[in-house]
Write a structure and sequence with these properties.
461 residues, Fumarase C, Chain A, domain 2
């Protein structure tokens, strides 16, 4: 019979046990469950609720259970529902009445909240480290390509010349915010819920401050009902992971296009591509494509937890058992992306001449021409209209902007001078954008210097 079975005259049907179990996925919380139980037992002894000898025996046996799980010698069974019941049942099996003391002044409601928080604060730091490695790969490729020019795009059409390094570092910036969101979420979830009981706390004189110190939480939850019923911290972590995957998916889309024959800007190493079962010539960017696809999977986990929580009255409801499977899957998915993507970026081959050739259309420097008119005192909106008229003139006469003569240019706007005929170089267009945050050579060099230093600095947790 289940540990909670005193109220029941019959055992649950096997189909019910199969339906309600969570041990198939929450077993990954074993370390955190055992860590929390050890400290809880120590606290119970410290305030005289259980004997010190009982606490010592419990802690020693908990360590043995941990070793059994890690060596593969522990048997999991659906009858025991979840990781909490497995650990407690094994304690009682080994220690008898002494083991039965461990759940004093505790509910699975606050116990599972503790386990998830312990798990997430550890996982978030590892994920942040992985994203930092991703940033490092982007920075390395940017350094190697810091003089390479390609067309920047708006509306998926050529817009203005930019440095490839500038483009790659844009994603480093996005990933920096992703790290920030994860660490912000970690700060909010890093609060001790244990001691909240099932809903209202306990009549026993427990010492939550003892547990807080031992488990290294900076604070304790102030409201027991909120502590056991809320999963907004899970929602927040999943939202941060979803935004990270969104950014990865955008990068994937860029790279997939760049590798297509229509662009031919880059090539991935054979080690990071796959082929076709039918077409011998194919070399497919599957890592980028699968990462783009996995983004939807992570979104699904976020939508799932938001939907689960949206209609729950206070406090705990069994619906919340469904909070973990999607969370674990999302974390595993992000880990899998981080395991392959940095290597793919580091080994990526860039074709500078193809990129420059695409960026050499004089039309990409039309804005530069408008800004030259601004330098001559022409209001920008008027300058924009004048250059637009010149673009139309060129199209009507089947010419590119750099093929237009000074006389033809003056026929459209009299402010034209000979210097304006020299504006149609992508190198000049890049070099002139010498303001902080822009794509100019000097500015991108400063950005690269920033990232070299920043990526060596420890992250704030």
């Amino acid at each position: 019979m289940a540990l909670w079975g005193g109220r029941f005259a019959k055992d649950a049907e096997s189909s019910v046990r199969d339906f309600t179990e969570s041990i198939s996925y929450d077993r990954r919380l074993y370390k955190h469950d055992i860590e929390g139980s050890k400290v809880h037992a120590q606290m119970l002894a410290s305030v005289g609720i259980i004997p010190q000898t009982s606490a010592d025996a419990i802690c020693a046996e908990l360590e043995e259970i941990r070793k059994q799980i890690e060596s593969g010698d522990f048997t999991f069974q659906t009858e025991l529902e979840d990781i909490h019941m497995h650990v407690e049942s094994e304690l009682i099996k080994a220690l008898g009445d002494e083991g039965a003391r461990v759940h004093t002044a505790r509910s699975r409601n606050d116990q599972v909240c503790l386990d998830i928080r312990l798990y997430l604060r550890e996982e978030i730091l590892q994920l942040a480290d992985g994203i930092r490695m991703f940033q490092g790969a982007l920075a390395e490729q940017a350094e190697a390509s810091k003089r390479v020019i390609l067309p920047g795009f708006t509306h998926l059409q050529h817009a203005q010349p930019v440095l490839l390094a500038h483009h790659l570092l844009a994603y480093a910036e996005m990933f920096e915010r992703d790290i920030g969101r994860l660490l912000d979420a970690r700060r909010r979830l890093n609060v001790l819920p244990l001691g909240s009981g099932a809903i209202a706390g306990t009549t026993l004189p427990i010492d939550r401050e003892f547990v807080r110190r031992k488990l290294d939480f900076p604070a304790m939850t102030r409201n027991s009902m909120d502590a056991v019923a809320s999963r907004d911290f899970t929602c927040e972590v999943l939202a941060a992971l979803s935004i990270f995957c969104m950014n990865v998916s955008r990068l994937s889309e860029d790279l997939i296009l760049w590798m297509s024959q229509e662009f031919s800007f880059i090539a991935f190493s054979d080690a990071y591509c796959t082929g076709s079962s039918l077409m011998p010539q194919k070399k497919n960017p599957d890592i980028a494509e699968i990462s783009r696809g996995k983004t939807g999977r992570v979104y699904g986990s976020l939508i799932s937890i938001l939907t689960i929580c949206k209609g729950l009255p206070l406090t705990y409801n069994r619906d919340l058992q469904e909070d973990k499977e999607g969370l674990f899957d999302a974390i595993d998915t992000v880990r899998s992306i981080l395991s392959v993507y940095p290597g793919m970026i580091r080994t990526m081959t860039v074709f500078p001449e193809r990129m420059r050739r695409a960026a050499s259309d004089p039309g990409l420097m039309a804005t530069d021409l408008a800004e030259e008119l601004v330098r001559k005192g022409v209001p920008f909106r008027h300058a924009h209209r004048k250059v637009g008229a010149l673009v139309r003139f060129a199209a009507e006469h089947n010419k590119t902007l750099n093929e237009i003569t000074l006389e033809e240019m003056r026929s459209v706007f009299p402010e034209a001078d000979a210097d304006m005929l020299n504006l149609f170089s992508p190198e000049n267009a890049v070099e002139k954008r010498d303001i902080f945050g822009a794509t100019g050579y000097k500015q991108v060099e400063k950005q690269l210097d920033f990232w070299k230093k920043h990526l060596q600095e420890p992250m704030e947790s």
